[in-house]
Fold this protein.
Amino acid sequence: MAADTAKVENSFAKRLRNLLFSQEGILFIILVLVIVVLSGRNANFLSAANLLNQGRLMSEVGLVALPMTYIIITAGIDLSVGSILGLSAILLGVFWKNLGMPLELAIVLALVVGTVAGFVNGLFIVKLNVPPLIMTLATLAFYRGLAQGISEAKSVTGYPEWFYIFGQKSIMGLPTQLWFFIIATIISIIILRMTTLGRYLYAIGNNPVGARFSGLPVGRTLMIIYGYSGFMSALAAIIFVSRVTTTRSDMGTGLELDVIAAVVLGGTSIFGGKGGIVGTLIGLVLIQLLKNGLALSGITSDATTIVIGIVLILAILVNNFIQRRRDS
Amino acid sequence: MKNFSFRMFVSLSIVLLGLSFAQTWDGADDLPTNPLACGEGAGGGAVAMLDYNGGQATNAPDLAGQAINLIDVPKLVGIGYFAATTLGQEQAAEELGNVTVTTDAPTEANIDDQIAVIESYIASGNINGILFAANDPVAIAPVLRKALEQGIHVVGYDANSEPDAREWFVNQAEFNGIAKAMVDSLAKEKGEDAKFGIVTSTFTTPNQARWIAEMQAYQAACYPNMEWLETLEAQEDAVLSFNQANTLINKYGDDLDGIFGMTSVATPSSADAVTQAGLCGEVAVIGLATPNAMKPFVNDGCVQSVVLWNPIDLGYAATYVMRAVVDGTLNPGDSSVEAGRLGTLQVVNGSEILLGAPFIFTPENINDFDF
């Protein structure tokens, strides 16, 4: 009896230690440290209003980071997300204002266009074997060019009041876009952990050739996740437009870097086969709170960029060090 | 393979379609224009007095005569122009004695980052006023309204927001005044039938689009024989501006008489491109820029006219306006405001304060300025 208890405790301690020293566990500890340090520097940092506001600002990057995690797990990359965001935003405005469609329909069509833009990436990567980096680098330029051409240099403004619910209002105390993000995160975790599609992603990332010869639907899986990435970029576009009340063709410029930084900081390996949504979530929150907390403690934004760069490098170094010790 | 070429064909045609859209763009916005009278003279004429159309800070604490803490959020930091506005703010703060002003902004002219910076300072809870130069007039409005709702005073300068999102805006120069100075300078240097191209900022930057629209209107009315070749977009990026100026030079060759630079980055880069092409004197460069950046080209004799207002005065005036708002000496409906060494400044367009007529730097006077 006593031996049994000891055994249970032992395995519990072991599991706790495993959790603590996992990639996510270490990141979480760093996150807590950062919060403690920053909250000491400005009383408003931990206020509900500030944190909710940060959640609002984080959601657009977050929504796109979910499919990006999938893509990076398959050893791929999607650099075109910022441009898809810009293209969907412009088309939302053009469909509604220039073509006179109802705004509801324009939203649906903008989401469709974003998804198709993602599918096109997937199509070329799968059917023509173009490396993801090259394909999405090309569409990064191509989709942005389309957005600028279609917009004819004009921004679209004057959206009806109800449309601002997505970007500026709250539902049950939480910013609307945070609800979108939370729901999308839960779905993405479930798919990655509990479905065959999720297992395929890791298999493709670990050994694409093996996956193909094992009869996995590699092509279809890749098409789905690049389409998912396009869809989420378009969803982020609608939220972004609602938040800033206007569309511009340069919206979302540089978004891909923020997204990839969060995913990679979250422990998803750029070589594929390793990583998860929880890590991405922690990486995302860590970067956002660092930006905000440093600004609140009176550090100017150019200095903040430097500090964030240093923290990113340190976090990855510490993590690598501990992972190596644990493995040996 | 057939399939592949078909796909390539389709994507290529989409690219070309996109390009043909971009081609129609002349850089002007579609708002009504108000060109000044042709020829010499300050122009301007009587400005109709409009009703106050700015916003108001709700329940702002009464800090008349007391120390206030301001945050200044220009479009970006790290360029000479906004370093000069910051200098002016510091001069005003020193004279007033009861104002602290800190400049913080993104290192690139990006509206999303600019919003995030302002959000952070509102959340920090220790500022009394925001001075801003907007990267986008509409996109910045929600966050500024939020500041007003929390009792923080908001005054813009250089690039406006929607009027109700701030209390006052310090207008560096009326758009038609700048347009007149630019086009008149070209006529003076290259004749009334000059052919010209433009290197401007981004697609939707409000100031540049407005100036170009006014230049179009003024040129059509006063110099109908001038020919507008092309407008190229170059962000506010030195390398891109240089390349775009080269594009104009190579594409139009001898036809090109002049290049207008619409930003403080595009003008020196265009002058550099003209110098390197060995076309000084052949191709005139006229534009908006800070004097220090233009001194080499002006002293070489390659550039004759640099059009601008004094950005130091602009930052200085914005700080005085903010102080007057907090002290309650500038209220909706007033027609002028006292601004230290600049004297009395006029209220125009309902809730804007006009800095004055544009200033043209020439080889004779440019060495008197250092910013």
Q: What stands out?
A: Chain A has one domain: 50-322.
